[in-house]
Every structure is written in C-alpha cells, then in structure tokens.
Amino acid sequence: MSTRTRGRGRSARPSCRQIETSWAELLERGMAEGLFIERDAQLLAQNLLGMIVSVWRWYRPTGTKKLADVGELVEETGLRMLAR
Predict the structure, then answer these.
(1) Cα dihedral sign for 34, 24, 40, 45?
(2) Predicted model pTM
(3) CA distances from 65 to 27, 28, 61, 62, 84 (A)
C-alpha cells in the first residue's frame, strides 16, 4: 500500500477529537432533554469513550471473560455515569 493510499484512508475516518465532539454533543442534547445528569459533556464523553475503547486492550475471545458479560458491564457502568 502506498503512502498516498494510506493517507487517503486515514483522512476519510473521523479523528478522535471529532468523535469526542460528536459524543459530547449527543450528551449535551440528552442533558438538555433531562435524560442525563448535567455534567461537563466533553469530560464525560472522554470518560465514556475511554472505558469503551479500553476493552480491546484486555478482552480476548479465548479468555475467561464472556463477551456478553463484558458488554453488560460496560453498558451498566456507562448508564450509571449518565443517570439522573
């Protein structure tokens, strides 16, 4: 793969900052609608994304943790972070 091709693929994906901003905007809308507790949306977005993204570092399909259990834990933890 040439540098030119690699560069094009990379620029087509959103940056981490764009993803964080989109999540923060989503959280702000939820806060405005009274669905989520009011907190610093940017910090909350970074925290949620950090938790979600960290799973790839330690989860192994052949390991002792079942994917459904990991998903349930991440979902419950995320909801607790947002709960009113």
Answers:
(1) positive
(2) 0.75
(3) 30, 33, 8, 8, 30
